[in-house]
Amino acid sequence: MPSQLGNEVVGFILPFVVFGIVIYTWYIYIFRLCYAQIFDVNRAEAVAFMTIGTFFMILTLISYFRVFFSYPGKAIHATPVSLSTPPSFPRFYYSPRLLDSKKSGRRDIEEANETTSLLPVVSVCRNDGLPRYCDTCQCYKPDRTHHCKECNACILKMDHHCPWISGCVGHKNYKFFFLFVLYCAIYALWVFCTSLPTVIEAMNELEASLDPQWIVLLVLAFVFGMTLWGFAGVHGYYIINNQTTIEHISQRPNEIRIDFDISGQNYEIVTTHHDDKLWDLGHSRNWKSVMGKSPWGWFVPIYGGLGDGCVFVYNDSLYDKIIERAKRQRMMLNPSTT
Fold it and tell me: How far apart are CA 136 and CA 304, in angstroms?
């Protein structure tokens, strides 16, 4: 298909464009402006400008390479279910008592000794109550997983498909994407703010030589700086609210399945409003879930977020409300059920 071929060509070219723009602007800023114009007038200022500019340029490229070469996280192909749970029982589910705080993940219900004490469990399901399944990928889709047509894969906690990295932004590379956008914005605005006085001074002096590439540098730094700064702010908002781009713009309600036992037949379906932030754990926990537990690693593009991307902790208040609604529905449909 022409559209698919076009996407592949664009996805192949854009990473080279990103790398080229960063290196080009760094060269102009360091050698044709700071060293050639400022160094002879104020050596200390020129060295400071070059050091800080290079520092943020390096962080930008490291973050870009990390997000480009990191796996976003994909749902695996369906495998035979455990003998202790029927096929209709959700493959991925959440219960506060099944949470493994050390691994920031969950234990399988089969691993627990007291099965009944861990129930009920919740999961996002289809309208008919069946577990979400992708026929294309032949896999069960965990909560917050979506199928990407460009990547032809189901991406864990998918945020969006980004042609600038020739792939998807998902659970395992979202931190690196955010750091790339943030550091690129800081780098661009630093270059713009420190270059502008020199360029203005050169324009005001009739005898001064004005390098045309300074103008190109200012335009690129301003456009990318302001655009990416706004982009970084938006994704910072998503992080502290534990949302993705897809979840923020979605107008569809979530169908939540509540299983009261492991038979796969004893469950209720509760519809939640699209504005309900099911996984909002408070700003601090939301931030750590993406950026990591240690403050020393928050702004270092080395380690990714917490968890396996298959099960996410629900907001305690919404979880309790969902369980109560499910119990009320059950009582209304079958008053004899306890």
Answer: 28
Q: Per residue in 32-70, is it b (16+ CB within 10 Å) or e — as a string?
A: ebbeebbbeeeeeebeebbeebeebbebbbbbbbbbbeb
Number of C-alpha atoms within 13 angstroms, CB side, residue 50?
A: 18
Q: For 136, what's the count of Cα atoms within 13 Å in the CB-facing half-sphere?
A: 11
pLDDT digits (tens, 9 = 90+) for 326-335: 999 988 877 6
Quote the tokens at residue 159. 């945020």
Residue 94, C-beta contacts closer than 8 angstroms, at least 6 positions apart? 106, 121, 122, 123, 143, 311, 312, 313, 314, 319
Confidence label for 294 from pLDDT (cuts 50, 70 and 90): very high
Q: Which tokens in the block code for residue 139? A: 């896999």
Helix axes 43-69, 174-204, angle to 10 degrees: 150
Whether residue 100 is predicted with pLDDT greater than 70 in this model: the reply is no
* pLDDT score for 164: 93
- For the stretch 296-332, pLDDT in tens is 999 999 998 899 999 999 999 999 999 999 999 988 8
Angle at 278 between CA 166 and CA 239, to 5 degrees: 45
Structure tokens at 130: 């069946």
Q: How is residue 252 written in tokens?
A: 């569809």
Tokens 């008053």, residue located: 335
Q: Residues 196, 218: contact at Cβ < 8 Å? A: yes
Look at residue 264 and give its three-state secondary structure.
coil
- pLDDT tens readout for residues 256-288: 999 998 888 899 999 999 999 999 999 999 999
Task: Give the whole-angstrom CA distance, residue 82 versus residue 99.
Answer: 20
Q: C-alpha distances in angstroms, 198 versus 37, 47, 204, 212, 226?
A: 8, 15, 10, 13, 20
